[in-house]
Specification:
The protein is mostly beta strands. The chain has a single domain, classed as Porin. Helix content is 4%, strand content 55%. The longest helix is centred in the first third of the chain and has 12 residues. The chain starts with a helix and ends in a 23-residue tail after the last helix.
Length: 407
């Protein structure tokens, strides 16, 4: 029991999905951010849904063309060193290393039930090499080509509740190759007022140890999987500090398995680079081979000082399930609301939220409820002169490519 509680405590703090592992450009801004997020279901028992990490980005590190990015979480570390202009005046190169405990853990959720006897722990790490090329250097909105190759190892072990008869997948080596074309971008912060992005991506995954695992070899690991997806995003804050955001993502796959399928559910904005949130659902409750996903948010201040905000948000998806994880009906949707408090100079913000998933299955009925907490502390807010949470006229948005999108 003591070991189980320790594992759950660590999992709660680990960066689930390593959110900045696949950043799409060298970040040109000096940043020190602390991010926390947690979701708690009110019906049933789901997997641990939370993250806690410190994000540090240092341009001009030791030299004018070097950028160091570090993401630190309990028992996990993700780093990248970027060389600006190394392959040409508009082409950057970066090398990265990441790894630690629990990052490759897998939670089996089938028919709205979290099956702990079929879930297990995973640890690992690896190295990466990335190339970021700016296609339109003379344009206001950056268009970038991104190519990344990363190789790593994954090791698996039983959790305290894993069934002794459940055969774990073999430890393996994995090579991932990702290419993308991105117009615009989004900053790694909850408090940025503006963003716009249109992007398309492809990722191929190659595994050294493919084969069967589970109960009587009832599931398999594919030797090669291919993922294709596209995203459109718009985030805008008006002069009265009313905020509107909308995101649409569509994806498909070839030979997907449980380790490469798209997983939807929960409300955790930094759980991955491309979060597929579904309010009211367990974190990563839905596993899909193909999907179309939409989510949006509307937020406005409640007080004259504008430090208390009310938000409404929703998400919906139409999915084609991964084999073995099907549910009745392909449509999923949820709605929710949140109350945020922002410090006077915008250094920190905390949001408490409630959400309801209309199509989530709980005990043979539809409907699930969830509460959550999201917290951000920007250690550089005072230096940038922010006076409130959203101030578009004070700090205009810059894309990750370093070019101003809005002036």
């Amino acid at each position: 029991m003591r070991r189980r509680n320790l594992i759950h405590l660590v999992l709660l703090c680990v960066v689930l999905g390593t959110p900045f592992l696949s950043s799409a450009q060298l970040d040109p801004e000096y940043r020190r951010l602390i991010q926390l997020g947690y979701n708690q279901p009110l019906e049933g028992k789901g997997p641990i849904a939370g993250y806690g990490f410190f994000y540090y980005n240092q341009p001009r590190c030791y030299a004018t063309n070097l950028t160091l990015r570090v993401v630190v979480a309990p028992v996990y570390l993700d780093t990248e060193l970027g060389f600006q202009g190394l392959l040409g005046p508009h082409t950057d190169l970066a090398i990265g290393a990441a790894g630690g405990g629990f990052a490759d853990s897998y939670s089996e959720i089938r028919g709205g039930k979290y099956l702990q006897e079929e879930s297990f722990l995973g640890h690992g790490g690896g190295l990466s090499l990335s190339v970021y090329h700016r296609i339109n250097p003379n344009q206001q909105v950056p268009l970038s080509l991104i190519a990344r190759a990363s190789g790593g190892v994954s090791f698996y072990e039983e959790d305290t509740d894993t069934d002794p008869a459940f055969v774990l997948p073999d430890d393996r080596r994995v090579l991932r190759v990702r290419t993308g074309l991105r117009l615009g971008g989004e900053e790694p912060s909850l408090t940025e007022p503006l963003a716009m992005e249109v992007s398309v991506w492809e990722e191929s995954q190659f595994r050294s140890e493919a084969g069967a695992y589970g109960f009587n070899a009832d599931r398999s690991v594919e030797g090669t999987s291919h993922l294709f997806w596209a995203r459109a995003l718009l985030k805008y804050t008006f002069e009265n500090e009313h905020l509107f955001s909308f995101t649409s993502i569509a994806g498909t796959s070839i030979d997907a398995d449980r380790f490469s399928a798209y997983r939807l559910g929960g409300v955790l904005p930094f759980a991955s680079e491309f979060p597929l949130n579904l309010p009211g659902y367990y974190y990563q409750e839905i596993s899909a081979e193909r999907f179309v996903h939409f989510d949006g948010q509307y937020s406005f201040p409640l007080t004259h000082k504008r430090n208390l905000r009310l938000s409404f948000y929703g998400g919906a998806a139409c999915v084609d399930y991964l084999d073995g994880l099907e549910q009745r009906g392909s449509w999923h949707s949820g709605l929710g609301g949140g109350l945020s408090f922002i410090s006077h100079r915008g250094a920190w913000m905390a949001t408490v939220l409630y959400s309801h998933g209309f199509n989530a299955i709980r005990e043979d009925t539809h409907g699930a409820n969830q509460i959550g907490l999201i917290f951000q502390w920007d250690l550089e807010a005072k230096k940038r002169g922010k006076s409130r949470f959203f101030t578009p006229d004070v700090n205009p948005y810059r894309s990750r490519g370093g070019e101003r999108l809005f002036r």
